[in-house]
Write a structure and sequence with these properties.
It contains five helices and five strands. α1 packs parallel to α5. By secondary structure, it is α/β, with parallel strands linked by helices. The chain has a five-stranded mixed β-sheet with strand order 2-1-3-4-5. Helices cover about 40% and strands about 20% of the residues. The chain is globular, with a radius of gyration of 15 Å.
Length: about 160
């Protein structure tokens, strides 16, 4: 069930999204797009990650992929039933596919990605009835905070690039 129309937020979702935002700041400090992620199992954070594409020189080093690896290691299984993933930006097709493959129960994300979003904006991989698993989706949790963080990052990037022209 995609919960895009829900305007209120659960305190628990907000708490974990704030942790994801903190992870996104680490990505930014390391020169990467500020996207952060946490995975929760039975009320406990079992994975925290941030984008590391620049750091690791790896196009697959998205926050979600790194967090999925950590969570699978913690649980001791690649199937992450009972887990909720919190991400500051709507996952891309690669990450959305990985969420389906990992069998997470729930995805909560902060802001939509109209250019590459694969959880309702451009595609909806995580709820595609043709696939063998679907996630419950909740979007818009701390949306303004998540959006402003990304916008400020890209504004600074454009200014830096303009200064080098």
């Amino acid at each position: 069930m995609n919960d895009k129309s829900f305007s209120g937020t659960l305190p628990e979702d907000e708490r974990y999204m704030r942790m994801a935002i903190d992870q996104a700041y680490i990505a930014e400090e390391n020169g990467d797009v500020p996207i952060g992620c946490v995975i929760v199992f039975e009320g406990r954070v079992i994975a925290k990650a941030y984008n590391q594409r620049q750091q690791l020189h790896d196009p697959t080093a998205h926050a979600e992929i790194i967090a999925l690896t950590q969570a699978s290691e913690f649980i001791g299984n690649w199937r992450l039933h009972g887990c909720t993933i919190y991400v500051t930006l709507e996952p891309c097709p690669m990450c959305a596919g990985a969420l389906v493959l990992a069998r997470l129960d729930r995805l909560v994300y902060g802001t939509d990605d109209p250019k590459t979003g694969a959880c309702g904006s451009l595609y909806n991989i995580v709820q595609d009835g043709r696939l063998n698993h679907r996630l419950e989706v909740r979007s818009g949790v701390l949306q303004q905070d998540c959006m402003e963080q990304l916008q400020a990052f890209f504004r600074r990037r454009r200014q830096e690039n303009a200064n080098f022209s």
